[in-house]
Structure formats: C-alpha cells, structure tokens
Amino acid sequence: MSEVKLRVKLERSVLGLVAMEEEQEAWAQGERRRIVATVVSARHLPKMDMMGLCDPYVVISMLGSESKTGVRKNTLSPDWGEDVALPWVHSAGEADAAGDVQVSVYDWDMGSAGELVGVARMDGGVVFKRKVGAVSEV
C-alpha cells in the first residue's frame, strides 16, 4: 500500500505578525490562520511508466487554491521536504466551512497532464481546530 507522509501545522497572524507557537486557541479580532504542510515523503508508489518507475509530485488544494511540490524523477519512494502554505482563513466560521484539504500524488509525463497516482482528503475544519503551532504527522 502506498503512503504519503505530511507534517501539518497551523499558523496565525494578527495585524501582519505571524505567530507559530501561540497558546491561544480562540480567534482574536483581525486574526487569520492558515495550514502549512510539509510534504515529507512517499513510499511504495505504484509503477507508472514502461521503465517500472514513477516521476511523482504532490498537489495540495483547499478553498479553490492549489500548490504543488517539485517532481522527483525515477523513484517509487520520493523525498521532498517541501513546505506548502494554504490560503489564509479570516474567521472561525470560514475555517469551519473550509471543506477538505485534498492531497493528490501525480506522475509527471513530458508533454501531457500528470497521471493521478492517488488522492487523500483531510477535513480542513478539523485541522483549523488544532492548537496553533502544534505539528501533526499525517
């Protein structure tokens, strides 16, 4: 079975100052929060090309915005160590309505759209309820 390892943390910003180790859970006036995911690695990816390998990259999307990692060539067990910051959310209500954070792995192919290897989803509303600054592995 394939697996992708992420580290997820919640950042907050009040009046433009980013705080990642804040104890406060309640939303302050003028505060915004975002999810920052570190795409660590993937293991046991399926063979996707005639050479029996894969050229994987990860796309993380939420609220109509997406970010992607670089491509790792010719591997079924890539390492990335890349941070992906998702959009800022401006209220607890907006966080509750954020919907899913989608994590998709694609196989890069020259001259065509990437081929989907697999996809997983996390409830964004649940992630936004975690302690600000706490890091979770998923």
UniProtKB/TrEMBL annotation:
UniProt-listed SMART domains: C2 (SM00239)
Keyword annotations: Calcium, Metal-binding
InterPro entries: C2_dom (IPR000008), C2_domain_sf (IPR035892)
Keyword Secreted attributed: no
A GO term, aspect molecular function: calcium ion binding
One GO term describing the cellular component: membrane
Keyword Calcium: yes
All copies of domain C2, residue ranges: 14-138
Pfam families attached to this UniProt entry: C2
Listed name of the protein: C2 domain-containing protein
Species whose genome carries this gene: Hemiselmis andersenii
